[in-house]
Structures are given as structure tokens and as C-alpha cells.
């Protein structure tokens, strides 16, 4: 089985592990901090192992390296080369403990016995899930079939016997092995057989967050853009708040609703109500996921965490007349002092946002190949086909026709001055690069300056208001909700999704917009 080199480097620090959830457990090790002059300075770091399923592609193991307060340092992924869960668990243990290599690398029998004694001590001091023993026993059995010496057979026999004792919770004989007072055979025969008691596996909030995100990735539920945003909200905002309340390493079954209220109060100090409620929804989703995975012994404590927002909802749309004035200002009066290549094209960015309702990032990443024509209808294709392009979610991929004359938009000039002047199909039509593609602050300054000089223009308006304006316009003109959803890239309702799954054709969508 081939492993990636990052895994081998991480396992070089492996000193044993504490079992947690069968899909996420951790190992703590001391790592020398090379950034300090004192070579003895150490910091506590963790490696989280997540066993996940990619459906038809089988199981894989995800290793996430975390530092102080759960800060994500690095990660890597290794295929376990199987679609069977029990085999995947065995393969993962094989990778971590390198049992087969150990069985053939001992110098003499005394070294083998020392390893068994150390292993027995580990089993006494750390709880293991049932699949741990089954996986190890399976690997040991396979290893014994290819053993080439008496010493290897003897080691594997003793190893299996030690595992069996631990699996059956027979602590006294395990202590005898760890102290090397009795042989394994004597321990097995002189001990009283005790009923095996399965211990509930534990998992803390940091582990739960990591496992939750990894499963979202494995199931392709989050796009690259969504993943980027959600990693921040989960792995930074939530972990920091749980850490501030000293709950980040607490077993999730020990967390109460009052604890979550404390977390909410901590977040409320720096977040507005709407954002705070989004983070509370994230916490609710985490505990729902834990419940689905049967990690909770009782009901979820994440109940009614949202708080009522007493502030009146801000009207974000721009009236049609005011929007028309703003678009004309951008084309006729606005001057950008920058010598950047994109400066002459800023007016077209605003025009496209106004007539399509597309998000700023979606417009700025448009390439020449994304301006297409079908049945004489010119439209933009919003997709992630090009390297570096991202979408907010799966429903964001869509096509939107360009309406000649809307808000003064001149389709002929746009094609001649903007699209046709691009050299290659992969060129950004607004002459942006990967470095200059995010010009959010620039448009913030444009809107701020315009609002200062035009009292009738909504003071709450931003670039994203152009998207709200399109939605409001469609609503007031009586456009069917399914059509508006297709235009804006919103998820459809169940009714539309079930009975209109074939979608809206481009010509019909063009005529409806016109």
C-alpha cells in the first residue's frame, strides 16, 4: 500500500494514540519547536485520523495536523484501497502502527517481549473501540501467514493473545504482562474470564468539527468556495469560542445547553445578530451530525440557540430609477485614476451585475469562452470549468442571457470593445489576473463616493445590492419563481425541483427577461 510522504513524516512522531470516535481519533506527541532558541521547548500538537467513505471510490484516511488551540497546520489524504469498512479499519491501523514491519524487524526475542510489554501497558491506559481489536487481530492473522521465522510466529501469537485480553477487559493478566511477571500463556489460563464491557467512545468539539468538515468534502456537499468560507467559520470562529469557554477538549456528551449559551454569549460580543444566529445554526448542525453518527448518549443540547433579531431588516435593493442613474454614471462620468489594465472595464462589470444579478466574484472570473451564443441569444456561462474559478455552491452554475438595452446596456459595444479584444478563450474579459481578481474594496469606494454625492441613492447600497435589485425587479414584474431561481442560481423549492427539473431553455428565459 502506497502512502504519501507527509503521512510518513507525521507517523515518525507517533507515540501511541487515544481512541475516540471510530471515524475520528487523535494522538498527542511532543514536537520540538525549532523557532525557539531553547531546543527543549515543546508544544502540544495533535494528529486527527478520520476514516471516511467516498462511495464508489472506497474508503480513505484523512490526517489533520493541529497545533495550539486546535489551529490547523497541515493535512494529507491516503486511499485505503477498499470498499469494505472492516478492511478499511484494518488498513488504517496497519498504516499507523506498521505491525507487519515490526514483526520482522526485531533483533532478538527480548526485544519482541519488550514491545509486547509496552503494548500491554498502552492497552491498559487507553480505551479502544471494538473495531480496533478486530482490525489488529485480522492484520496479525494475515501477517502470520507470511511469517518466515519462529520468532515472528511467536511474536504474532503473543500479540494476538494480548489483544484478546484487552478486548475482554481482563486487566489483571494485562498488568502481569506489562510487569513481565507471567508469560502470556499463564496469564490466559490463570485469569478469571470477565465479561467484555464496551466503553462509549468519546469525541470532543475539535474532533467533531474536523470529522464533520471532512465528511462534507468526501460527499461533495460543499463547493471549493463554500469550503473556504465554512472552514473559517467552523475551524476558526467556533473553535476559538469553545476554547475561550474551555470546552474545546470536553467530551460532547458532557456539554450542556448552558455551556452552548456561554459560547453564544462569547460570540455575541463580536458578531451581529444575523451572523451570530448563523454560527448557532452551525453548532446545531454539528450536534445533529453527532446524533446521526450515534455519538450522543442523550438528546442534543443544541436546542433553540438562535436569538430574535429586533433590528429591522435592511432593504438592500436599489430602486429601478436610481440604479439606471448609477449605471449611466459609471459609463459616462466615473473616471478611475489607476493605470491598471482593468480600469477601462469597470463600467462593464457594473452593467453585467445590474442586468444579470450575478455575484461580483462570478462576474470578475468570466473568461472569453464564457460569453456564448445559442439561437442568436448571447449569454454568460457561470461555471468552474477554468482553473482558478470557483462557485458558491452547485446551483450557482448557470447561464444568464444578456438583454440589449437594459439599463442602457449596449450588447454590440460590449462584444466589440470587451469580448472580441480578448486574445485567448481563457483570458479574463475584464483584463484581470489571479492577483487583481478580487477588487471588492475598489467597488466599496465607488459606492461610498457616489452615495456621498447623491442624496437620493440608498445609503445601504453595496455592489451586492445589484443582485437584490434584480430579484426585486423580477418579483415586481411577475416573473415565475422558477425562472428567477435559474437566473440567480438559487436552489429550487421541492415543487419546482420535482416538476421542473428539465429547466428553462435559453430562448424562453431571454424572452421572459426582455
From TrEMBL:
<dbReference type="InterPro" id="IPR050090">
    <property type="entry name" value="Tyrosine_recombinase_XerCD"/>
</dbReference>
<dbReference type="InterPro" id="IPR010998">
    <property type="entry name" value="Integrase_recombinase_N"/>
</dbReference>
<dbReference type="Pfam" id="PF00589">
    <property type="entry name" value="Phage_integrase"/>
</dbReference>
<dbReference type="InterPro" id="IPR011010">
    <property type="entry name" value="DNA_brk_join_enz"/>
</dbReference>
<feature type="domain" description="Tyr recombinase">
    <location>
        <begin position="313"/>
        <end position="514"/>
    </location>
</feature>
<dbReference type="InterPro" id="IPR013762">
    <property type="entry name" value="Integrase-like_cat_sf"/>
</dbReference>
<keyword id="KW-0233">DNA recombination</keyword>
<keyword id="KW-0238">DNA-binding</keyword>
<feature type="domain" description="Core-binding (CB)">
    <location>
        <begin position="203"/>
        <end position="291"/>
    </location>
</feature>
<dbReference type="InterPro" id="IPR044068">
    <property type="entry name" value="CB"/>
</dbReference>
<dbReference type="InterPro" id="IPR002104">
    <property type="entry name" value="Integrase_catalytic"/>
</dbReference>
<keyword id="KW-0229">DNA integration</keyword>
<protein>
    <submittedName>
        <fullName>Integrase</fullName>
    </submittedName>
</protein>
